[in-house]
Write a structure and sequence with these properties.
about 240 residues, alpha+beta, two-stranded parallel ribbon, about 20% strand, globular
Length: about 240
């Protein structure tokens, strides 16, 4: 049976509309679940930076674990002043968007974690650029705002088996115990060294073999982001 061009045209329009509406309905229905997953993953990443494992924790319990360890959040500006204390607003901050604002309007979160041994750690988010796209993560410090407690790094599309390895323990674990200031109090950040860092270098870690560009991207990310926190760190160290 042959159909007229008008019939085919109307049928095509109806099908496009039905499919579009169906996809919209599905997207709306899935959005809350997707947002919950993103929120939980962010909590897991923050906790990972203070060496609190959550891989085996059911997703519904991650929120409780997060609130157990993360006891305070403040937002600071580039002058080192606390300008925000609303934990929900600060948790929602994405550095990629924050860095697009004028410098005077940027708010940088600082998370406080109280660990099982009674120690306190301060966590700062990171955002930078790797070889093929964005890299991000968190770095935490002891109360001296100098000694690294732990790190968490991840990426969008770095090369598998090379730069993509920044999220593996063999790369992240060596950051523990490293320092970002020298003996004179000068900011050094962390150097990620191709060919390996000397054992006695308190600021150096090994780069990923074959992933030098991504490794250097992580190094620059740490330096640039922690530079933004320098005024705040200096004020805290004087207290």
């Amino acid at each position: 049976m042959e159909h007229s061009n008008k019939y085919i045209f109307i049928y095509s329009i109806v099908m496009v509309v039905v499919i579009a509406v169906s996809l919209t309905v599905v997207a709306v229905q899935l959005k809350p679940a997707q947002e919950d997953n993103i929120r939980i993953e962010k909590m897991q990443n923050i906790l990972a930076s203070v060496n609190v494992p959550t891989a085996e924790v059911p997703k519904k319990q991650v929120i409780d674990v997060y609130h157990k360890y993360i006891t305070n959040v403040v937002g600071v500006n580039l002058n080192g002043d606390v300008v925000e204390k609303d934990a929900e607003k600060l948790f929602a901050i994405e550095l990629a968007n924050e860095f697009k604002k004028p410098a005077a309007q940027q708010v940088l979160p600082v998370y406080t974690a109280t660990l099982d041994n009674g120690d306190t750690a301060f966590i700062m988010p990171l955002r930078g650029k790797g070889l093929w796209g964005p890299v991000w993560g968190y770095i935490s410090f002891r109360t001296d705002y100098n000694t690294v407690v732990g790190t968490m790094f991840d990426h969008k599309g770095e090369t598998p088996g090379l730069g993509a390895e920044i999220n593996q323990p063999f790369f992240m674990d060596p950051f523990k115990g490293k320092t970002i200031f020298d003996q004179d109090g000068k900011f050094t950040s962390i150097q990620i060294m191709k060919g390996g860092a000397p054992d006695d270098n308190p600021h150096g870690v090994d780069a990923i073999s074959g992933g030098t560009i991504t490794s250097k991207g992580v190094e620059k990310m740490i330096f640039d982001n922690l530079s933004n926190y320098q005024a705040y760190i200096n004020k805290q160290k004087k207290q």
